[in-house]
Design a protein that fits this description.
The structure is a single chain. The chain is α/β, with parallel strands linked by helices. It has one domain: Rossmann fold, CATH 3.40.50.2020. It contains four helices and eight strands, in the order E-H-E-H-E-E-H-E-E-E-H-E. The radius of gyration is 16 Å and the shape is globular.
Amino acid sequence: MNMREKAQVMNDEEIRRALIRISHEILEKNHKHVDNLVLVGIKSRGDTLAYRIASNLDKIESINVPVGAIDVTLYRDDLNLHESKIQVSSTDIPFEVTGKWVILVDEVLYTGRTIRAAMDAIMDFGRPAAIQLAALVDRGHRELPISADYIGKNVPTSRKEFVKVELEEHHGVDSAKICEPDSE
């Protein structure tokens, strides 16, 4: 299926500012727990955003927040395990999560199923004191009772549209776009 860009909703500067704001909000909400704060990015772009947030936290408050990355593929409730094209990447959580204040980071929050899968995956590593969610884009259409604690931008979409986030580290540019199926 071919997709076409319908609208750009965030450019590089808007993404940079949103991540700085999210970083400040994380510090404000977690000032009592900053020593037990960890970031876990959901692959494949949430982990990149988690590293950017950690860098911001270091610049703002000179704190070194550990960052991990998690692949939730095998935790998805909509995964067909008989599918031959399943691609699983590695999970890297090089710290203890038990007793930590975990900030999950993802680029787009949609139905909530990816976040539910990520929470299940994190619980396999231990029992955090709390789990919070940071999303660059919240596009609505939740199927589960999940909401983000930190949101870069709310972007109303229809179910047939999707939000494509491109990041410098992967695509050579930072942008968020609404795309839809090409009618051809």
